[in-house]
Specification:
It contains one helix and four strands; from the N terminus they run ββββα. By secondary structure, the chain is mainly β. Strand 1 (2-5) and strand 2 (13-16) form a beta hairpin. The longest helix is centred in the last third of the chain and has 5 residues, at 69-73. The relative contact order is 0.17.
């Protein structure tokens, strides 16, 4: 004989039980009103949620600005947008 336990969100579990037959004398058989194991114990394990798929982030493609060809051959670049100040002398 078996006893089954089930609960939403947990894995079901089945436990084997048997009647506890204890004869009162050698000529009589006992009346089985008890079960073994007594008490019946089952510890339900939680169901693991399904693994979430990692989504790859989508990146927007941006156009790269190319530097003017003259900027590479002219003198050093400054933070003023490529404009060079005259020599202070």
């Amino acid at each position: 004989m078996t006893v089954s336990f089930a609960l939403n969100g947990y894995q079901p579990q089945t436990v084997q039980v048997r009647p506890d037959v204890a004869p009162t004398s050698y000529t009589e058989t006992g009346t089985g009103g008890r079960l073994q194991p007594n008490p019946v114990y089952a510890e339900l394990q939680p169901v693991k949620p399904p693994a979430k798929k990692k989504s790859t982030p989508t990146r927007k493609q941006t156009a790269q600005k190319s530097a003017p060809a003259t900027a590479a051959t002219s003198g050093p670049q400054t933070s003023s947008g490529g404009f060079q100040w005259p020599d202070p002398r």
